[in-house]
Amino acid sequence: MLSLIAIFLGSCGVNHQLDLAKALEDCKYDIVSADSVTVAGVDINRLKSATTTDLKRMPALALAFLQQNIPLRGTVNLKITNPTEKDAGINQFEYKLLVKGQELANGFVDQKISVPSGGGSTTVPINVNANIYSLISDGKTLQAISDFIRTGSTSGEEVKGVVTIKIKPTLDMGGKQVQYPGYISIDKEISSKILQ
Q1: Closest alpha carbon to 92 in 187, 181, 178, 195
Q2: Rounded to an integer, what distance in angstroms lies between the CA atom of residue 40 and that of residue 25?
Q3: What global pTM score does this model have?
Q4: How does DSSP assign 18-33, residue by residue?
Q5: Tens digit of pLDDT for each residue in 134-155?
Q6: Residue 87 burial (CB < 10 Å; 0-12/13-18/19+)?
Q7: Residue 71: CB partners within 8 Å, gap ≥ 6?
């Protein structure tokens, strides 16, 4: 009898976690800011004001490019708003960050996230640490990224681009971590102004 009760309670807990994770699919997501962003150790604000000639004079970037190791580091702040009538949440999640369909970074956030129903919101910091050499070694992609970073600061013009974040929640099933089937995919148009 005790075993049956334990199994029943365990399945209720799993169903509750699944309901919370499924509710995340109906939430709204916004990238509100990007903080402490560096490329090969160079602050993104320095890159925003640089000309193409200046970029060639930055030894850290030149060395990183020659070594085919261009580290991108920073924090993307993702705001999750829950307009539904069901609470949403997860204990932890795996993520992928894509630009123009190419994976820029991936990682794991080990943080409990709860988003109350009825318009509740929370902001989740996602730390990005990736080698972007393969992404920017393509001249067209490098030019598009460069335009995105610099145009807003040099002309006051707002430049927009699409970023995709894929989230795979992890569920706790009787002390074992089980990944949610598939990714929750979020396509967001972001403005160059988030880097200001």
Answers
A1: 178
A2: 35
A3: 0.73
A4: HHHHHHHTTSEEEEEE
A5: 777 766 666 666 666 655 444 5
A6: middle
A7: 38, 39, 40, 41, 64, 129, 130, 131, 132
